[in-house]
Amino acid sequence: MLEELRTQQEYADFITARYAVMTGDPAAAATYYRRAWTSSPGDPGLLERATISTLAAGDAVAAIKLARGASADAADDAPSAQLALIIDDIAEGRLKSAQTRLRKPVLGALNVDLAGFLSVWLTAFENGQRGVVEADQLPGRRMVAGEQAALKAMVLMQAGRDDEAAEFFRQALRMPLATRDAVATMGASLQASRGNLQGARELIALVAGDDEGGPGVARVLADLGAGRKIVRPKLTARSGAAMAMFVASGTGLVRSSPELSAMRHALVLHLDPDLAAARFALADAYTRQDRPDAALAALQSIPDSSAWAADARMEAAAVLNADEKPAEALVMGDRALALSQRREILVRAGDLNRFNGRLDIARKLYDQVIAADTTRGRADWMVLYARATVRNEAADWAGAEDDLKAAMAIEPDRPELLNYLGYGWIKQGKRIEEGLALITRAAESRPDQGYILDSLGWAHYQLGHYDVAIEHLERAAELSPIDPEILDHLGDAYWRSGRQEDARFEWLAALRLKPEAAREITLREKLEKGLPAMPGARLASRP
User: Fold this and answer.
1) Domain boundaries, the chain
2) How many C-beta neighbours within 10 Å does residue 5 have?
3) Which of 209, 218, 511, 540 is the most buried (most CB within 10 A)?
């Protein structure tokens, strides 16, 4: 009887774990798979599922403990358990054991590139010249060419062949590479530590262009500008393996899966908890798993002294804002600004404040960015567009119009700009035909965007073309059925065409969607009295 209950419980745990996986809850899946594994500790399939789900939940320590507690036979047939054991071996200095495990075929096709990277690094740590030879023997693969060049640069640096290392850093940064900031930071630091400041700047230029670049290279640039000494990067067995694994985990396959990304980066951080770029990547995986609390914890664990601190605070602000905690998000955004005035931080802070109605602050931040851009001889249509929306919301249409025209000088066919400028002209009651022409161009380019078709329909409404307006507004409502503004506009068009019952239906539907206060008042008035005899409809601005 006891055995039957254990079997039933194991089956229940297994089914519950499978359901947790299907519903995107890796933490619950890990709990139930581990319970099922406890009932059948010899089953390599259960061990593999339990290890995968535990790592996908970001708990490398628990995954390693699970793998260490399994029998050798079970672990030998569980690729993720073997990977966890390899990382634990490296972390504990058992490098020969790690190399032995890395040679086992059980790691599978998914880990083949990672296994090669780790093996090359461990060899290079023991013997730099032999590591260079092994790096050259890795099978060349176009999809990971940038990552392989970055690894070769690390190995050459370990071997003391700095000039060659610098060349491979350059090669890596000229190819697609998701970990560009971390690789460029290492390469530029190597060059600067040797007194080759020009070489350091040239490497940074490959990833930053006319900008400050990412947080790591921005820190190096600041140190170079201040004349501070930059020390040569020093990699230990652990930190080098972490960096090799981090670089190998920047491929599209890993980045496309939040679970696989969490697995890899949790193990990277077990090797090197101070690798802030990996912590940032883990937080991104948590966000895509819809685990905002875990993402926030990961981001907030990055200390203020880190080059990544401001980016971490800004990303935390985005997570809080998406979690409908705007007040906390704004506080976090202010913390990011206190840590850094990098262009990317300024732009993101401007967007955050704009989305939450702090228009004066947003305007000042955009002003700062645009002024700096002008000094550098550059122009960014997106920042100009963002400032235009702020100016329009602040009843400064003339300023908004100037920004939109400047943005269109850069991107004359951009649908967002065409729609916004055309919409604004019609709202002002001037250049209506020109505004309609712009919106028509936008709609031709983006026929599947409800808000653009709403603009087109509303433009025709303003011109009294009610049948044409209804055609576009109905399509807009199909594309964006929960947008109260579109339903409100459609109701108005129905009313003007004599379809009063249809109009009231749309207005009521818009009201049920809980629109902003001003629209709610007008909707209630229209439901009670209908529209006035003379058209007096108002265009609302679009973000």
Assistant:
1) 2-136, 148-235, 442-543
2) 9
3) 218
- The architecture of the domain spanning 2-136 is Alpha Horseshoe (1.25)
Report the sign of the C-alpha dihedral through residues 272, 273, 276, 282, in that order: positive
> Which CATH class name applies to 442-543?
mainly alpha
Q: Are 70 and 50 contacting, i.e. CB atoms less than 8 angstroms apart?
A: no
Cβ pair 317, 332 in contact under 8 A? yes
- Report the alpha-carbon distance of residue 541 to residue 543 in Å, rounded: 7
Q: Using one digit for the tens of pLDDT, what is the confidence trace for 117-157? A: 999 999 999 999 999 999 999 988 888 999 999 999 999 99
Q: 249 and 114 in contact (C-beta within 8 Å)?
A: yes
61/298 Cα distance (integer angstroms): 15
Q: What is the DSSP letter of 214?
A: S
Instruction: Give the closest residue to 60 by CA, choosing from 298, 309, 313.
Output: 298
Sorted by sequence, the CB contacts under 8 Å of residue 222 that are 6+ apart come out as none
**Residue range 255-276: mean pLDDT, rounded:** 93
Indicate the length of the chain as a whole number.
Answer: 543
Mean local confidence (pLDDT), 164-186: 95
Give the whole-angstrom CA distance, residue 230 versus residue 207: 19
The token pair that represents 432 in the structure block: 């209506």
What is the rounded CA–CA span in Å between residue 68 and residue 328?
Answer: 41
Distance between CA atoms of residues 140 and 200, nearest Å = 28
Cβ neighbours of 137 (radius 10 Å): 9
Segment 68-73 shows an average pLDDT of 87
Domain 2-136 identical in fold to domain 442-543? yes
Q: According to the model, what pLDDT value does residue 478 have?
A: 95
| Contact predicate 127/216, CB 8 Å | no
The number of beta carbons lying within 10 Å of the beta carbon of residue 42 is 11
Dist. CA 236–CA 234, nearest whole Å: 7
- CA gap 533, 504 in Å, rounded: 16
* CA-closest candidate to residue 542, choices 442, 460, 463: 442
Cβ-contact 485, 454 below 8 angstroms: yes
Q: What are phi and psi of 212, to 5 degrees?
A: -80, -15
Residues 373, 392 contacting (CB under 8 angstroms):
no
